């Protein structure tokens, strides 16, 4: 599949553009979730895709907020080199959703671009680690983060109350009084 000048390789989670003959190829690796959202938008070029439909398609947990969608769209724009203020690929329609505005074609992938071999590229496992980190961030919703923070605060307050020395009527601690 081709989106504007980008050749899309969903199985490898990569986007490639440039000229093979001029040896000027740019390859961008994206997370599987970013690739899934790109393919979802590419199946509906020129259509408004709501944030809610993206949430239902890719984040089945009921506690997920639309912030997760915004983060994936921001990552997609970064990978494509798109500017949200003057979009070339993904247009935001406030309170409605997103629209892929670039040309989409079902071209065959470039045969001369070799598949990446993880054994030959030691840095190839970095996107996989980032993918796991992104998935963990998607799981930690703002509500869950708030709840964890509240529980930690309660635990710290409980511990500090238990280890605080008892205060005597005079305002001095028992240790002071015994000396």
Task: Draw up the topology in text.
Layout: E1 2-3, E2 6-9, E3 14-19, E4 24-29, H1 32-42, H2 51-58, H3 67-80, E5 90-93, E6 97-100, E7 104-105, H4 126-139, H5 142-163, H6 174-178
Antiparallel strand pairs: 1-2, 1-7, 2-3, 3-4, 5-6
Helix pairs in contact: 1-3
Describe this structure in words.
With 179 residues, this protein is α+β, with helices and mostly antiparallel strands. It has 2 domains: 2-111, Arc Repressor Mutant, subunit A (Orthogonal Bundle); 141-179. It is 41% helix and 16% strand. The chain has helices at 32-42, 51-58, 67-80, 126-139, 142-163, 174-178; strands at 2-3, 6-9, 14-19, 24-29, 90-93, 97-100, 104-105. A 5-stranded antiparallel β-sheet has the order 4-3-2-1-7, with no helix packed on it. A two-stranded antiparallel sheet has the order 5-6. It is elongated and about 70 Å long. Residues 109-130 have low confidence and may be disordered.
At a glance:
With 179 residues, the protein is α+β, with helices and mostly antiparallel strands. It is built from six helices and seven strands, in the order ββββαααβββααα.
- Number of helical regions: 6
The biggest beta sheet, please? 5 strands, antiparallel
> How many angstroms separate the termini?
81 Å
Mean pLDDT: 76
Which spans of ≥5 residues are poorly predicted at pLDDT below 50?
109-130
What is the H/E string? EEEEHHHEEEHHH
Alpha carbon gyration radius: 25 Å
* Shape descriptor: elongated
Reported CATH architecture of the largest domain: Orthogonal Bundle
């Amino acid at each position: 599949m081709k989106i504007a000048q980008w050749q899309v390789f969903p199985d490898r989670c990569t986007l490639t553009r440039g000229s093979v003959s001029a040896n000027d190829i740019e390859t961008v690796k994206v997370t599987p979730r970013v690739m899934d959202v790109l393919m979802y938008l590419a199946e509906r070029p020129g259509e408004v895709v709501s944030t809610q439909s993206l949430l239902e398609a890719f984040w089945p947990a009921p506690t997920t907020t639309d912030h997760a969608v915004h983060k994936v769209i921001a990552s997609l724009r970064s990978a494509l080199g798109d500017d949200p203020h003057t979009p070339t690929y993904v247009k935001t329609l406030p309170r409605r959703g997103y629209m892929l505005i670039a040309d989409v074609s079902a071209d065959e992938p470039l045969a001369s671009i070799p598949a990446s071999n993880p054994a030959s590229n030691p840095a190839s496992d970095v996107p996989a680690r980032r993918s796991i980190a992104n998935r963990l961030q998607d799981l930690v919703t703002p509500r869950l983060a708030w709840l964890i923070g509240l529980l930690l605060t309660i635990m710290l307050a409980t511990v500090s109350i238990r280890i605080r020395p008892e205060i005597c009527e005079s305002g001095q601690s028992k240790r002071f009084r015994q000396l």
